[in-house]
Amino acid sequence: MSSTEFNKYINSSEFKSLLQQYENARKAGEMMFFDSDDIVDIAEYYHIIGDLDSAEAAADYCLRLHPDEAAPLLFKARMALVDYGDVEEAKALLSRLNEEEESLEAVYVKAEIMLSDGGADKSDRYLRGKYASYMESREAGAFSDDMDEDEETPDFALDVAMMYCDHGYSDYAERWMKKANMPEKGPATEYYDTWARIYMDQQQWQKAVEMMDKVIDADAYNTSAWLVMSDAYFHLVQYQEALQCVEYAVAIAPDEPDAYLSKGNILYALNYMEEASRCFERYNELSPGDPLGELLLATTLLCQSRTEEAYKHIRVVFEAYDELPLMQSREALRMCATIAAKMGDDTFAMECCDLMEASGASAVETDLVRGAVCVEVHDMQKALAYFNKAVEASDYDLAIVARIGIIAYEAGLYSVAYKMLKEAVVPYDGTDFAECPPQFLAFFTGACYNMHQRKEYLHYLKYAVECAPLDISIVLGEYFKPGTEPRDYYKIELEKNDKEEE
After folding, report:
1. CA–CA separation, 283 vs 290, rounded Å?
2. pLDDT per residue over 407-461, tens digit each?
3. How many CB atoms lie within 10 A of CB 472?
4. CA 140 to chain centre
5. In angstroms, rounded to a whole number, what is the distance separating the alpha carbons of residues 158 and 139?
6. How large is the average pLDDT for residues 16-28?
7. What's the CA gap between 207 and 222, in Å, rounded?
8. Do 245 and 227 contact (CB within 8 A), yes or no?
9. 3-state class of 144 per DSSP?
10. What are the phi and psi torsion angles at 128 (to 5°)?
C-alpha cells in the first residue's frame, strides 16, 4: 500500500473502528485477537502521529499474538534504527527473523542497517545483488512480496530510492530512480515525490516544482507536497507563489506546525512582519518549547522595534539553545546577545558570547559579537578594541572588515558601514557578483541608499536583487510596500527615477 493510500486508509471509518477496538482492549488489559497486518497498521499510524511509545507497544502486542510474524519485528527494527539510532538493537531484532523466507521488507531493513553501520557503498552492493536476483526470480516466487493479490507489483528500485532519500543520499537515490518504473497510469505519487526530493537536495528548484505539480494533481490534499512546493518556490525567490502553496497547506491541515513555520518565513521575506509574528506564535502554540520558533518570533519582533517582547522570548531561547543544531545554536546565542544588548543587559549579552566561544566558535567570531554588544550599549572604545582584535587575528581579512560594516549598519552608523562594506564589495564589480557573499552586497546596497548615493545604489541594487534576493529583502524591505517581491525592487526604483525626471 502506498503512503497516499495508507493515509486515506487511516482516516477511514474502517480503520477508526479497528483502532477503537484495539485501544479498548489495551485499556481493559485484554489480549483480544487481531490480524497481524491490522496491528502493524495501528503501529504505523501511531508512528505517523509521533507517538513512538504507542507504536512500539502495538508492535509488541502483535508479537505476543503472532510470535512468528516478521512484520512486527521489522517494524521494531526500523524504529530502533531510525528513531533511536540503535544499530545493535536493530541487528538483534533482524536476527530473530526466519531466514528461510526472505521478504522484500527484510531486504530493505537489512540494507538500511548496513547504510547506518557500514556506509552507502556497502548497502548499495548488497541491494544491487538482491535487485538482480529479484528481477530474475520474481515470477518463481523466490521472494515474498508481502502484498495482497489486488496490489500492484512492488517497485524494488523505487523503494530503495525512497530509503536513500530518507537518509540524505540523493546521488544514490537518483541512480535507483533511473531503474524505477515510470508510471503509465494512476496517481504514482511516491514516484514523483521521490524525484522532487532528489531535485530539492540538488537545488534544482524548478524541476522539484514540476514533480510536485504531478503529486498534487493526483492528491490535492497532500499537505507535505504543498509544503515542499512552497519551499521550492521560496528558493526560486517567488515568494507570492510560495505563500499561496503554504496557505493551501494551512487550509488542509490547520494544526500542522511546519506550515506556520514556512508561512512565517515567507511573510518575513515579504516584509509582513506583524503577520509573520502571528505565524511564529501559532507555531509555538503547536510546538511548545521549541527554541527555533521562539528565536524566529524574537527576530520578527525586533524588526518591529518590539524589543521588550523580543527580550522575553530570547530568554526562552536561551534556556533551550543547546537543543538546536550547532550552527543554529550559535546563531541563537548571537541573537540573544544582540537583543539583550539593545535592552541594556550587557551582562547577559556577554554571557551569551562566552557560551558561543565555549561551543567552539572562533575567537574572531566571538570578538565580533562582543564588539556588536559594546556598540549597542554605546561603549565605542571597547567595541573598537574587540573589532581591532578580530581584524588582526584574521590577518586583515576583508570579509571580517565587511562583517564589522554590517554591525555598523545595524546600529545605524551608515557612513562607517558604507566605507567598510565598499572595500569588500567593489572588487567584485565588473567580475561576478554571484561570487560576492550575499550579505555583503545587500548591506552595501542598503548603505548606498541611506547615504543617498543614488547612482551607486541603483548600480548595486540591480545585482543584489539577482544575487542576494533574500538578504536584500531583509535589508531594504521596510522601504517598499509590504508584499513586494525583491525581484521588483530595481524596476520600482527605476520607475521612481523616471517620474522624478519628468
Report:
1. 9
2. 999 999 999 999 999 999 998 887 778 888 999 999 999 999 999 999 999 999 9
3. 28
4. 44
5. 19
6. 93
7. 19
8. yes
9. strand
10. -60, -40
> Cell 572562533 identifies what position?
362
Mean per-residue pLDDT, 293-317: 96
* Grid cell locating 29: 488489559
Please report where in the chains the cell 530518507 appears, as a residue: 166
What is the DSSP track for 119-158? -HHHHHHHHHHHHHHHHHHTTTT-SB----TTSPPP-HHH
Q: Is the distance from CB of 343 to CB of 301 less than 8 angstroms?
A: no
First CA to last CA across the chain, in angstroms?
67
Contact predicate 450/414, CB 8 Å:
yes
Residues in the chain: 502
Q: How far apart are CA 297 and CA 231, in angstroms?
A: 20
Supply 160's cell numbers: 530503495
350-387: b (≥16 Cβ within 10 Å) or e: bbbbebbbeeebeebbbbbbbbbbbbbbeeeeebeebb
Element (H, E) at 394: none
Indicate the pLDDT class of residue 186, thresholds 50, 70 and 90: low
Burial of 430 (0-12, 13-18, 19+ CB in 10 A): exposed
d(CA 407, CA 392): 18
Q: Which amino acid type is present at position 413? A: L
Per-residue pLDDT, 98: 75
- Tell me the per-residue pLDDT of 56-98, one tens digit each, with 9 for 90 and over: 999 999 999 999 889 999 999 999 999 998 999 999 998 888 7
Give residues with Cβ within 8 angstroms of 381, minimum separation 6. Answer: none
Q: Residue 144 pairs with which residues in a beta bridge?
A: 103
Mean pLDDT of 340-362: 95
Strand, coil or helix: what is 377?
Answer: coil
Please give the Cα distance from 26 to 32 (Å, whole number): 9
Contact predicate 433/467, CB 8 Å:
yes
**CB-based contact 346:370 (threshold 8 Å):** no
The 10 Å Cβ neighbour count of residue 182 is 7
